[in-house]
Amino acid sequence: MIRVLLVRWSRYNPYYLEPEPRKEVYHIPETELTPEQKEERELKSVRPIKAATNSVTSSVFNDPVLSKFVNMMMKDGDKIIAKGIITQTLENMKRKQVEKYHKAPEVKKAEIECNPYVIFHQALENCKPVIGLASIQKGGKFYQVPIPLTDNRRRFLAMKWMITECRDNKHRRTLMYEKLSQELLAAFSKEGNVVKRKHELHKMAESNRAYAHYRWW
Amino acid sequence: MAYLLPSLPYPTSFANTVYILFFYCIIDCMFVYSMCNSVCVVAQVRPLHGSGCGQQQEAVGMETRPETVSIFRTQENDPACQSEQHLGQYYTVPASHFHTVFPHGLPPRYQQQVKTFNEGCVMVRQPALELISHLKRADYINPTLRYLLYGVKGSGKTMSLCHAVHYCSTQGWLVLHIPDAHLWVKNCKELLPSSYHASRFDQPIQASNWLRNFRTTNEHFLSKIKLRQRYVWTKRESTEEGRPLGELVDMGVSRVKSSSDVVGAVLKELRLQAGGTEGGFRLAVAVDGVNGLWGRTTLKKEDKSPVAPEELTLVHNLRKMINNDWCGGAVIATLSQTGSLYAPSSAYLPQELLGEEGFDSMDPFIPVPVSLYSEKEFESCYLYYLDHIHFHHWLQHPHSQTEEGKKELIFLSNRNPSVLERLCAFL
């Protein structure tokens, strides 16, 4: 049995440096390097470097947001199935949009977006909440206080809502990629349950405006 | 110069200065399309079947049509007129023919692609052209020749078969297209014991489906061919001698219980009448996944013992069809590992997939290897997916349209047609 030695999550000595997966960095000729880059290169030639994770690629088609979404969809570490579902989703969205494009009259053709990546990113943007709620204890009672959210938290909430919506609230027999593509296309045009959930969160925060001063950070 | 002109079956106009060459050399027409305003010398490919393809070529050579001329598409939609100059180019199957020629038989992903793009484009490739040239030159008095397409998974065997089937149907042959022989040896819900032969089993659903599709493909032949024998189905039903074949097929579709025997009768009639001198037609038997006819099945009898392929009526009759003891047609077969049972996934050669028994039955055959895309073919496929004019381009990712993205596609797919298609689907 082949055992894979997981080196990445073991505690590396802080002496180790991060790997650089992008190809453009290595193609810059010697003459065009700035003094900092030259220093960095010399440092890298002396110090040891951490092993790169399996999810970083030097491919031109690499998308960090999409990789994060795949990781969130993944169950029991089965990335192959999760990645397969996402690729089927992208293909399904593209097919639906291209068919819509063919049926549309000439005037409307320019407005229809066929690029599944653009649709995915825009849909996620439309699902991201601007303001969130936190449970803060004051005088024995817990109040829902509106707080600003960091970028990472907003992205996480959008993806989480999208996945739970598709897993729970749809018909049992439809496949995941079908559910996801319907939900993403709806979110792209600002309809659908996920965008509704975001609006409800905003309304709750608006209604609890009075407790905003309970936040001390 | 009139005395030098041969008597051509179509009228030539003397207004254009066209020099007819007597030796049939094929010049590289890739450059003719781009330089056609200056070139007056056109190689007239002598049409073997007297169709209008020579006139088409003449018309294209004379006019300049820069906006519709592209490297990867060709206007030559008739498989009979395609030659090596069209290698790597896509031709469109006319929409009117599409549902009659291919009611079944196309790979499922390709059917999805046709639905999305609203057009069915097939690439002209070397194995299909070779097959078509053999079909053109064979003499149909000798016993049937059997052609076997083999290659790695996803290299385009089924599409080459469909190209040959399109050729046969445009030439007016009767086409017997079995979409996948593996579908007859696995996943059968109903296995009835055969009424005709005690030890055999019938498959009513598969047989009636196939008869329905056969009826769609060969409408015009059904009334012309007359039966030469009387067939008795039950005590009350029989089909008399001299009735048209259409009646037999309709009976098979409606009476599902005896549809497997109807299939057997149809195959027997066609075999007897194919090479006939009066009202003779040519018969093309196209079988996909022919290695399913020999080997093992996953079907079980009621006492849980396995069913051998010989014990299925459909398989038994099809094997008789593939034997070369009849004349007046051709048998084109494809090996397929994808649907096959109990075969390792790395097997693709005829010896491995057909097994001893299958190879002995198919022997002698003409092997036609189908390889992965060459550089020119890959280029053509890539440009087809990037096509702006005919449809909104399929490759949407901005990076896939750069050189870097193209190199990455070559690396990821290894120029395998089906892998490339799956990659471009989500990019």
From TrEMBL, chain A:
Swiss-Prot/TrEMBL keywords: Mitochondrion, Ribonucleoprotein, Ribosomal protein, Transit peptide
GO biological process, one term: translation
CDD domains reported in the protein's UniProt record: uS7_Mitochondria_Mammalian
Superkingdom as given in the UniProt entry: Eukaryota
GO cellular component: mitochondrial inner membrane; mitochondrial small ribosomal subunit
Localization: Mitochondrion
Matches recorded under Pfam families: Ribosomal_S7 (PF00177)
Domain Small ribosomal subunit protein uS7: 53-209
UniProt family annotation: Belongs to the universal ribosomal protein uS7 family.
Protein name, per record: Small ribosomal subunit protein uS7m
Species name: Oncorhynchus tshawytscha (Chinook salmon)
Organism ancestry: Eukaryota, Metazoa, Chordata, Craniata, Vertebrata
Automatic annotation (TrEMBL), chain B:
Record key words, sorted: Mitochondrion, Ribonucleoprotein, Ribosomal protein, Transit peptide
Keyword presence, Signal: no
This protein's name: Small ribosomal subunit protein mS29
Primary subcellular site in the record, as a coarse category: mitochondrion
Localization, UniProt: Mitochondrion
This protein's GO CC annotations: mitochondrial small ribosomal subunit
One term of GO molecular function: structural constituent of ribosome
Matches recorded under SUPFAM superfamilies: P-loop containing nucleoside triphosphate hydrolases
Short name of one Pfam family: DAP3
Entry coiled-coil feature ranges: none
Family: Belongs to the mitochondrion-specific ribosomal protein mS29 family.
GO terms under biological process: apoptotic process
